[in-house]
Amino acid sequence: MSDSRPPKFYSDEQLHSQIQQFLTALKARGVTHVNWQKVDIHLLGEHMALASNIAIRRDKNADIVDVVGASYTLYKQEQGWRIVAFAIHSADTAFIPQT
Q: Which helix or strand (DSSP H or E) is residue 43 part of?
């Protein structure tokens, strides 16, 4: 992938299936909602960006289940920005600027 060469995307069906599996696993752990606490987006070029966030996952009582980081590679198409890839990781390793 580069500014002049777009990435290959999952089909809508493939992406939907993977997201459903991910969400089912979260629900099985008791997660009912996620609050994004911090988000950083860094443009790499006209069509590429990296984003990172810290998310707090909560259960039905609003108790914290866990806190994670997530990082995304984004690519801009005619329809707008699309997530090309993402990774869930420790909140400590999210590339959020310190204020």
A: strand 33-43
